[in-house]
Amino acid sequence: MPLISTDVELAVTRLRAGGLVAMPTETVYGLAADARDADAVARIFAVKGRPSDHPLIVHLGEPDQLDRWATDVPDAARVLAATCWPGPLTMLLRRHPGVHDVVTGGRPTVGVRVPSHPVAADLLGRFGSGLAAPSANRFGRVSPTSAMHVVEDIGHLLDPDRDLVLDGGSSVVGVESTIVDLTIDPPQVLRSGAITEDDLTRILDAPVDEGRGPSRTSGMLTSHYAPECAVHAVEDREAAERLAGRLRTSGSKVAVLDRADDPVGAARALYADLRDADRAGVDALVVVLPPAVGIGLAVRDRVTKAAASRGSPSRRG
Ligand code: TXA
Ligand code: MG
């Protein structure tokens, strides 16, 4: 059987039989399993090479399924669900007692989101229950934003008779969902994304904290999202050209990535850009950071973490 397909019904069949399905979402591709099937979820960790204490997000087809996975849902979460779902927002809530430890990493909380990608929505709608899914890349590496990226990263680890890569084209947002912890007051943003802390503050008409202090999500490790090449983050084009010049004199193959005047496009293309740099055999990629507003914040976060990764592979997460 071919590993890549656009057949949503086949994907449902695979999930029901305990297989893994790489599914397109508006943010990045996820590697999904039936969240009620502990063995299937355990295979996600094996394929990703991910430590078992890193919890997975449960993806739902409808906001009204929330109470099957979470308890003590605060009003703020209801407001965010009604306003931001379907869309790139993950909420951390108190877990429902029925949620498997393998999904939550044994934590008292569960991450939930309703993706807006039409293929993900179709898949979740037909499946009718929650799908546990991390980004469909090897642990610590660049997230996939196309079916081809998934095949390149983990295709050899999937079983074509059991698993499936569901092709839904390129992810339009391009960076992972915003994660907000609603088990504390005020809520705290643990990972930046297309929905910003300012957006959340405005929607809730109440304070929202930016993530700081010891991080509770692996996406908050200082090193993450790492391509093979060295990544350098700079604030403007001139600084990029100066640094690129210096690096070239030492014999490195250097490229400059500058989408700073188009933060939305920068987010959408970021992970493909990082992969392209590796494919081109670049030693060092100098990235011009977009301004620190809107989705530019998420791009800055990911590029800064990619830059921090070099020399500390053991901390990649
Ligand atoms: O956009 C996204 O969120 C994508 C798509 C596929 O939905 N998913 C994604 O999953 O980025 P992942 O596993 O690569 O990143 C989710 C992050 C991890 O850092 C994980 O540790 C954290 O969310 N997380 C999930 N559940 C959590 C929980 N209950 N408590 C703390 N952190 C949690
Ligand atoms: Mg990830």
Describe this structure in words.
The protein has 317 residues and is α/β, with parallel strands linked by helices. Helix content is 32%, strand content 18%. It has helices at 8-16, 38-48, 75-84, 101-104, 118-127, 147-154, 197-204, 237-249, 263-279, 296-308, and strands spanning 4-5, 21-23, 30-34, 57-59, 70-71, 89-95, 109-113, 131-133, 164-166, 178-181, 188-191, 209-210, 230-234, 254-258, 284-288. Strands 1, 2, 3, 4, 5, 6, 7, 8, 9, 10, 11 and 12 form a 12-stranded mixed beta sheet that branches. It is globular and about 60 Å long. The chain binds threonylcarbamoyladenylate and magnesium ion. Threonylcarbamoyladenylate binds next to strand 6 and strand 7.
Main traits of this protein?
globular; single chain; 12-stranded mixed β-sheet; alpha/beta; binds magnesium ion; binds threonylcarbamoyladenylate
**In one word, what is the shape?**
globular
Please compute the radius of gyration using only Cα atoms: 19 Å
Provide the succession of SSEs: EHEEHEEHEHEHEHEEEHEEHEHEH
* Model regions low in confidence, pLDDT < 50 over at least 5 residues: 311-317
Listed once per kind, the bound small molecules are:
threonylcarbamoyladenylate, magnesium ion
User: Pairing-aware structural class of the strands and helices?
Assistant: alpha/beta
The number of strands is: 15
Helix content estimate? 25-40%
Q: In DSSP terms, counting alpha (H) and pi (I) runs of 4 or more, how many helices?
A: 10
Distance between the first and last residues' Cα: 32 Å
Oligomer description: single chain
Fraction in beta strands? 15-25%
Main sheet attributes: strand count, strand direction, barrel closure: 12 strands, mixed
Mean pLDDT across residues? 94
